[in-house]
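Input sequence (487 aa), recorded before submission:
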Amino acid sequence: MRTFLLAALSLLAFSVSAQKKNKTAEQFSKTITENDLKTHLYILAGPEMEGRETGTAGQRKAAEYLKQQFQRIGIAPANNGNYEQFYPLYKDTLKDATVAVSGKKFEFGKDFSAALNSVITSQQFFSEVVYMSKVDTTTDIRGKAVVIVAKNGTQLPAFNDINKLYSRQPAAVLFVVNNIDKQPSPRGGRLTFSLYRSRQTPLVVRVSEAVGETLLKEDFATAKAQTLETKTLATELMLDFRKETEITQASNVLGMIEGTDKKDEWIIISAHYDHVGIINGKLHPGADDDGSGTVGVLEVAEAFAKAKAAGKGPRRSILFLAVSGEEKGLWGSAYYADHPVFPLEKTSIDINIDMIGRKDDNIKSLDTNNHVYLIGDDKLSSELPRFVDSINNMYIKIITDRKYNDPKDPNRLYYRSDHYNFAAKGVPIVFFFDGIHKDYHKPSDTPDKINYDLHEKRTRLVFFLAWDAANRNNMFVRDIPLNVPPR
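Predicted structure, token format:
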């Protein structure tokens, strides 16, 4: 009986708090306008930002713009007096590489290439190699050099078989393939988020058929025909690789408004300001992805700043968090979640905005001019969906579509934006999204294609949700067990 009474009182309290419009919130929501969103977005998605790829000058220019806007509107720096939270990135460069068989040296880019993420600076000498006709679990390959000849010159073993091969800890794996000289052989690697791995992979080298024939001698023809059985062959193989790792950095941009009586509790409003940069000489502006969410954060921040200046500041503190590295693998939000400036156990909710500027033209049965996808609000807090619906019905009345909450969703969108790193730590989240359109990750994702009236409506809904979340009596309950499968 007591449990029923408490539940009933809780529901009543929720209903009472959510059924009456807040005139102050309505007043300051009107400062969020189409024109302001458009002005910011044409700058953030403009050519001078170079596509905002993480770790580039374009990303740093975008961070500087966000800092300037936070300063202009009166949003305080949130990282111990700084607006930026820097995190390290790593980039490998292959400085030297030699493959020699019985004293004969081969040429990088013509006769061999290497996967930079598998290269460890080392010089290795082998008196024999193990030719494998197929990946098995019995041949002794630990610490040895393994040779695999691609079927028809291109077809390598299946991905799972290759992983099984690596797990058996050979020192090096040489894949014999054709057309090495026609494939890219970069000496510079991609940026990575961490130097540390649970297990080191072997040195992986792709070698030409000329190298394969020198290694396997008279057995090469039958190996190429895929009729040679697994065997060990005597030879003299030298692998000498040297790489350097450059440490660089990227940053999240953090601004805050301090609360009043509940200032030690936090609301996060997040978006990623990075995009994919310049690919094959073509600028990818990333207007919707996620320029739209980033400028939405700026507008919401300005509305709260004006309210605070008028003596109507929030009870809880609010963190306005623009992260980088999302397109690389949610790097910036992962770093913040692992190095939070403010305690995550005192964070009531993360409202994440990733693509809120376009209509979903794939929808035929709903009004796409009054629609938004909501993702993840059902995962950690049973009261959050009710709360979101109540605020929406009171102020905006936009169609909220939760189809992507389906655990069987093949797009797995719940795992693909920055809210996920907060959810994985137990913080309730709601993710605003407009759908995957034909310009997604293309040079054609430009600011002129944004539906600014709909962009304004969605951004105002984020503001109203944040306003009530920051001023309600209690943090959101965390009463649904955390389930964190691999991304």
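Checked by second reader. Residues 287 and 447 are 5 Å apart (CA to CA).
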